[in-house]
């Protein structure tokens, strides 16, 4: 082979490199960035977008774990990351291109909340930006992130958060990366602005265990635990807990065969609580139960299985066609009839023994399951939701027979959605509050009052609220 003779080397100092090194291809961080962008620009849910992206791009193992940590972590912390970035940018963040801002958030998250070495966090983010927008914007990102890296998260909290002594809720909201109105709602529900509030807010950043429900009459919790390698749940007689990140539960045989389903243990206990109080209705041949807000069908399926065992029947109402379809799928083979209808206009007054109102809500009780949710929800959502909740609960009280039972459930601890709605309906209808706690005998730490408020930091469940009323 002919080789060209190499040029003679010139003596003297090496020449400065004029072209920067090419950006490194980084599939994990690229997937995290694309997830952040989908969440911002398309109102996507991070926990739905990312798994599909990882599958399509064949990202597995450590890269998949890194993409997940960075995408979900950045989504949870968006408001806080923006506060720090604002302090480090010479331009107002509102004038920064949104796509670039997503990259800055990803870089800042790595600097503040991971053990990734600062130079790697900065360089990898600059590379992502350079690969799509060139060196000039890469330089801007480099400058901002270098300023972020000058202090650790605790120091940034000290600098930017309100004073803990004069504004404890504002301080904890910043320190745990929650909007203040949500921290305030938790504080009001807990009656605490100190350690317990901090624990409740911090629990939203922990990855929840997967809870399974063993369908009564098909499989016991012991059997389900043995088959899935999980642990029998501490509270629900039908519950099994799997380790967080134990793989896709849909792949488990009992789930595929519909002997079991994914369902938070708190949800299981709320559905069960509807079936537990003695009825004071005139005896009928068989009990008629109603699930007034059934989609996607988790509680309807558990109620259906309990009804099958006890000889009752269930009507399940859902307003949205797609979700009514999901209910049909969930209750196949059970004594449940699905109705596509508005619960506020459904049914004949006085025709049910037990009615569940698992009402649409802010979902502040399951923020740990949806990384971006805390920043998407707005305080202005609460008014419209409480109006709908009140109307649905009023209708439920009409639909139940005298002496029958209504369970009102929301996945939120916000007092306006919980005791606010229940108190209002009790005043207007004369329905009698039952001591709901007595019907959660398995559950410790339920605090004062009749109603049940569960919490992730106390019970490992979503923050479900349940009130029981007798007509
Ligand atoms: C919190 S979810 C219910 C969850 C369900 N019970 C489960 O365990 O799977 C509330 C449901 O109520 C439905 N919904 C909203 N407004 C409604 C209405 N006016 N009548 C009936 N369903 C309604 C929503 O579409 C949503 O599917």
Automatic annotation (TrEMBL):
Segments for region (Disordered): 1-28
TM region positions: none
Catalytic residues as annotated in Swiss-Prot or TrEMBL: 411
GO biological process per UniProt: regulation of DNA-templated transcription; RNA methylation
Molecular function GO labels: RNA binding; RNA methyltransferase activity
Residue ranges occupied by any SAM-dependent MTase RsmB/NOP-type domain in the UniProt entry: 186-471
InterPro entries the record matches: MeTrfase_RsmB-F_NOP2_cat, MeTrfase_RsmB-F_NOP2_dom, NusB-like_sf, NusB_RsmB_TIM44, RCMT, SAM-dependent_MTases_sf
Stretches with biased composition (Basic residues): 1-19
A Pfam match: NusB
SUPFAM superfamilies xref list: NusB-like (SSF48013), S-adenosyl-L-methionine-dependent methyltransferases (SSF53335)
Positions annotated to bind S-adenosyl-L-methionine: 293-299, 318, 342, 358
The keyword Membrane appears for this protein: no
Family: Belongs to the class I-like SAM-binding methyltransferase superfamily. RsmB/NOP family.
Record's protein name: 16S rRNA (Cytosine967-C5)-methyltransferase
